[in-house]
């Protein structure tokens, strides 16, 4: 069985790839160089894809800085004053919609019926494109939007194995699938050497997850 696995190099997407490999899928990892400020994650994605023996790993280039609207794609400062309320400024407009659309295109070429994405809606940053209702709507649309779907050669399914887990649950699942945490990167605003800031939303959520799971984070 083939699967496209969206892979940012972060804790969630890396765990998701590990789950897909554990479950017997031949994984085609897909990362994006979209103009993000935290480009160190792309190096992490390469390492994680190799670690889990992905059949292929592609990094696609998209210039989301041309759209802006996010602290991750403009020079807006990344908030570091505690977990944000509501939808934070680190939300990148329509990012998962864009990423899933490109994954869908590659899946059609590969005649692949499975896409894995590491979204969750419990301990997360409040992004609207991480919610289960968004994933269900996209999956429905995807099966209407492709030649393979119309001809009933494929019935695409979007897998979200982390959807009902909090960050501690994700850390525990990562341990189960054998993820090397030292390969991953979560920080929105690392220093020039790639070290995590420890204060952005993503760092705080990661720290919370490891602490509650009783697991030591090698990045700290």
Question: What's a quick, concise take on this entry?
Answer:
The protein is of the alpha/beta class.
Counted beta strands? 5
Q: What average pLDDT do the residues reach?
A: 93
- Derived from helix and strand composition plus strand pairing, the structural class reads alpha/beta
Segments where pLDDT lies below 50 for 5+ residues? none
Pattern of helices and strands: EHEHEHEHHEHH
Shape: globular
Q: What is the CATH superfamily label?
A: HUPs
Portion in helices: 25-40%
Through-space gap between termini: 37 Å
Which terms summarize this structure?
single chain, 220 residues, alpha/beta, Rossmann fold, five-stranded parallel beta sheet, 5 strands, 37% helix, globular
Q: In words, what does this structure look like?
A:
- The chain is of the alpha/beta class.
- The chain has a single domain (2-213), classed as 3-Layer(aba) Sandwich (Rossmann fold).
- Helices cover 37% and strands 11% of the residues.
- The protein contains seven helices and five strands, in the order βαβαβαβααβαα.
- It has a five-stranded parallel sheet, sandwiched between helices.
- The longest helix has 16 residues, at 95-110.
- The chain is globular, with a radius of gyration of 17 Å.
- The N and C termini lie far apart (37 Å).
Secondary-structure blueprint of this entry?
Blueprint: E1 2-6, H1 11-22, E2 26-33, H2 40-51, E3 56-61, H3 95-110, E4 114-116, H4 132-145, H5 147-150, E5 157-159, H6 167-177, H7 201-213
Parallel strand pairs: 1-2, 1-4, 2-3, 4-5
